[in-house]
Amino acid sequence: MNEQQHFDVAVVGATGAVGQQMLKTLEQRDFPIKSLKLLSSKRSAGKQITFKGQSYTVEEATPESFQGVQLALFSAGGSVSKALVPEAIKHGAVCVDNTSAFRMDADVPLVVPEVNESDLRNHQGVIANPNCSTIQMVVALEPIRKKLGLKKVIVSTYQAVSGAGLEAVEEMEKQTRAILDGKEATAEVLPVAKEKRHYQIAFNAIPQIDVFQDNGYTFEEMKMINETKKIMHMPELEVAATCVRLPIETGHSESIYFETEQSGASVKEIQALLSEAPGITLQDNPAKQLYPLVTNAVGKNDVFVGRVRRDLDRDNGYHAWVVSDNLLKGAAWNSVQIAESLIKLNLLNK
Amino acid sequence: MNEQQHFDVAVVGATGAVGQQMLKTLEQRDFPIKSLKLLSSKRSAGKQITFKGQSYTVEEATPESFQGVQLALFSAGGSVSKALVPEAIKHGAVCVDNTSAFRMDADVPLVVPEVNESDLRNHQGVIANPNCSTIQMVVALEPIRKKLGLKKVIVSTYQAVSGAGLEAVEEMEKQTRAILDGKEATAEVLPVAKEKRHYQIAFNAIPQIDVFQDNGYTFEEMKMINETKKIMHMPELEVAATCVRLPIETGHSESIYFETEQSGASVKEIQALLSEAPGITLQDNPAKQLYPLVTNAVGKNDVFVGRVRRDLDRDNGYHAWVVSDNLLKGAAWNSVQIAESLIKLNLLNK
């Protein structure tokens, strides 16, 4: 990291679930900030937020907000990014966008530093941060792909409500209390706030995250499929996903089946690849009941991998259980990590 | 059903989570009972249980309890079944056993009536009721297998705590209240009561159900794999499972990927097969956000299937979401259904 230069930074969506984690992460990483602007919707403007002991007033994000900004971290929804990222770029800022607005654009790098950091070199002012459930999966699969190749991936997710924002977390807690007290639970937010029907998430499992596409897959599932291929530069990779929302506050889990190009690697070989890879903590000892758990992963930056075992039918098939904090590696930490890589590669001033 | 004959029935494990559902189901089905014996461990003996408005005293199950019993429904744990099923058979009873004690014995039929009712004809005094998570999967897959053949199944489960008994349900509720009140949660029951380590289930996902085997799979996962092959008479079927416990009281969900022998069937064709099959309710309309949910399935006997969609890479690959009440079709209802089939096929007095 450049030890001298400090940067003018803006955080867009500073009051949201991810925005708050971004500020915490910038603080923890001692990110080289010269000036900090906290931006939000009109509704949240005026709020006070403390960063490194200093109080900041949240301002409404407008095209003019980006004057003098070198780095803008966006996490305020796709429509905000679509409207304001181009404005920020006009003002010379480099944007790291945590929404799906630009992820699949051919000229926008979609980056998980452990996998494709060098794609940052092609940025045109905006770098997309992948979907939370995609990030933890590609971090876990990359060391295996590098050594053994990768042919097929089938993932079923176990996703936390904080991925749908603070309102969803509040809804879950309210419903849970109501049910424990024998009262009726009402649903207004999940599975998708803007959709017609809402279902109870407390003590339930909802197989819908984001809206349905014409092919019967949800947008969340298609994000995992398409983003994985793009990040890994493998349009030919077979990927399938089923995404499910669960009554967990924070922390996504994934049951992943994958087939490698090369056959016959042992579980020990796979475990060795994982334990040496960046950003991964291997937690895999069935005899000691050691495996990744949401309750251990929350608040940490790593991706936790365990329950690695061979498929009983195919010589190139394996199963694994992958857990990570969806607000950190799945969002805030990956965004800040991208920013750190931009500085390291001297790409923030180009 | 035989309209005249009534039977002397015993329920072993009458005070447990499944035993209570068995009694409710026998009542609802107006099962032809001449006499009813409620049996349990010494600890629960003496309790009073009401059945069809009549009060019964629960008795300790001993070898002598089965004198005069024609049908014995067992759901009191594997060790009880191992000890007492042979005694019940000596007394002439036909036993339907809801534990894993005899499931894989070559001379014991393992039966899901919608799939292999005719296997009942080979019984030698005991019929095994499969594992809850197996039952709902084979019910959903059977109509597809019949028409299109079946090559490969990969399932990830989303299982409720009631499958681990009433103590597990109580533990989850206690932990949930504690966490909502900002207190510490303690764990003593889940994932497996007799294991060394226990983990919080509230707001968590535990990728361990039952104990680990030497191959890295849990016993629950191996049950799904081996039982599916046995019930479907397909030792060559490729089956893989990852079983996960979740903070849901009752109702198991399953994300199932399957490959058929015959390629190219449309989603509509698969849906038609499912909607005509016995024991299945098809709930599959993404445009209307209609898909199976635990909260709708609990208290019902059917297996609910939805989110049927084609794999995007393989012409014979499909994905589906399957939900059922683990205490009913997964246990009590399937056992009573087996008993009804035994009467229908005149196999209770053989």
From TrEMBL, chains A, B:
Which reaction(s) are listed as its catalytic activity? L-aspartate 4-semialdehyde + phosphate + NADP(+) = 4-phospho-L-aspartate + NADPH + H(+)
- Ranges where the Semialdehyde dehydrogenase NAD-binding domain occurs: 8-123
* Enzyme Commission identifier(s): 1.2.1.11
Is the keyword NADP in the record? Answer: yes
Q: Does the keyword NADP apply?
A: yes
Binding positions for substrate per the UniProt entry: Q159, R245
Which molecular function GO terms apply here?
aspartate-semialdehyde dehydrogenase activity; NAD binding; NADP binding; protein dimerization activity
Binding, phosphate:
R103
Classification via InterPro entries: Asp-semialdehyde_DH_CS (IPR000319), Asp_semialdehyde_DH (IPR012080), Asp_semialdehyde_DH_beta (IPR005986), NAD(P)-bd_dom_sf (IPR036291), Semialdehyde_DH_NAD-bd (IPR000534), Semialdhyde_DH_dimer_dom (IPR012280)
**Which biological processes are named by the entry's GO terms?**
'de novo' L-methionine biosynthetic process; diaminopimelate biosynthetic process; isoleucine biosynthetic process; lysine biosynthetic process via diaminopimelate; threonine biosynthetic process
Alphabetical keyword list: Amino-acid biosynthesis, Diaminopimelate biosynthesis, Lysine biosynthesis, Methionine biosynthesis, NADP, Oxidoreductase, Threonine biosynthesis
What residues form the catalytic site here?
A: C132 (acyl-thioester intermediate), H252 (proton acceptor)
- PROSITE patterns in alphabetical order: ASD
> Which pathway?
Amino-acid biosynthesis; L-lysine biosynthesis via DAP pathway; (S)-tetrahydrodipicolinate from L-aspartate: step 2/4; Amino-acid biosynthesis; L-threonine biosynthesis; L-threonine from L-aspartate: step 2/5; Amino-acid biosynthesis; L-methionine biosynthesis via de novo pathway; L-homoserine from L-aspartate: step 2/3
Superkingdom to which the source organism belongs: Bacteria
Q: List positions binding NADP(+).
A: T15, G16, A17, V18, R43, S44, S162, G163, N326
As for what it does, the entry says: Catalyzes the NADPH-dependent formation of L-aspartate-semialdehyde (L-ASA) by the reductive dephosphorylation of L-aspartyl-4-phosphate.
Quaternary data: Homodimer.
Family membership noted in the UniProt record: Belongs to the aspartate-semialdehyde dehydrogenase family.
Q: What is the recorded name of this protein?
A: Aspartate-semialdehyde dehydrogenase
Q: Which organism is it from?
A: Shouchella clausii (strain KSM-K16) (Alkalihalobacillus clausii)
Name of the encoding gene:
asd
